[in-house]
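Reopening this one. Same input as before:
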Amino acid sequence: MTQKRTYLFIHQNMPAQFLHLCRYLRDHGHRVVFITRNKTNHLQGVTKVSYETTRGPHKDSHVYLRAAEDGVLHGQAVFRAIKQQLGPNFKPDIVIGHAGWGEMLLVKEAFPDVPVLSYFEFFYRSRGQDLGFDSEYMPDLDTMLATPIKNTINLLSGEACDWGLTPTRWQFSTYPTGIQSKMSVIHEGVDTQAIRPKDDASFTTPSGKVLKAGQKIVTFVARNLEPYRGFHIFMRALPEIQRRHPDAEILIVGSEGTSYGRKLPEGDSYKKRMLAEVSFDPETVHFTGHLDTPRFREVMQVSSAHIYLTYPFVLSWSMLEAMASGCLLIGSRTAPVEEVLIDGRNGLLVDFFDRQGLVDRICEALAKPERFIEMRRAARETVVAHYDLRSHCLPRQLGLIAHLIGSR
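Same output, byte for byte:
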């Protein structure tokens, strides 16, 4: 009989990258505990422990050090949650958490002889990656100078763990060799059994219009509609797309906040700015806001052309999920998109700033969909072969965890 173990997960926005792993361990009879700041999310059968930081970074702190101070406050809050809420007799077999916010900094102080596996998402650089990539949204001098120091938490978290993992080879390449030496590249996985093409799929827009697979439907998805994910580039392409294909429906999924990059003043958003700048026919452009999982999958299943643009930054789940849905993906020629997408084989690549090239690719896909049937099939095959949850990613994650527990 497999030994039952206790797994402690830590992430401020439970369950995030650990959803599939938590469910698997829970379903196989293990005890799963999750420390988080999130007040609303729950997983049945998973013990949830909430924490709060005592304060934010001090207003008089040096601006370059505020991210580091915030990380220390998160690490302190997690340590206190372990000691005060889990009690003196609690001892997991392994701790697994995200390194980005400082939550993992002091875990070893609570559990000196328990293996710690940290998820490393991105190592910041002042040049050559996302920062300064887009001349329209250049960072100010203080942002540039603060960026190397922002990695304080990344570096300390690398020292404070036994091993790390990251989802793509390019994200791995952003880290210093010292952290790379104890890091594995393992994506969290795509459930290709649940996420798949559906020939008779339909999606009902917020206005009540029913869109069906086989129609001319262009889709764009981002957690938040912002420059990092090319929202401004796509919006400026809309008038020409509509001129050449007035019968095309445009689905734009995402909220109006800012996940990455420069935050706008209260009440402003990049969506509002683009609506003020770009003239288009609103009858065929549908902003859905945030969608739950079933509705998001419907969007992917009705798509004729799915647009994924990004600065050189972390890879979105939505790109791989779109490919698993059999979408024709039109992606930016940036890292780490090029790690997955091969132009002309399993999708189409276009320069991030080439608006005319983007329009031409989209219009070609709408005009001659039969040309891209094999490409759509190859997109799904890529995800099944390299990112499938059950056959590829989950077994590798479990193997790494078992090794860490066994080597203790």
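So the earlier flakiness isn't reproducible anymore. For the record, The domain at 6-189+388-407 is CATH 3.40.50.2000 (Rossmann fold).
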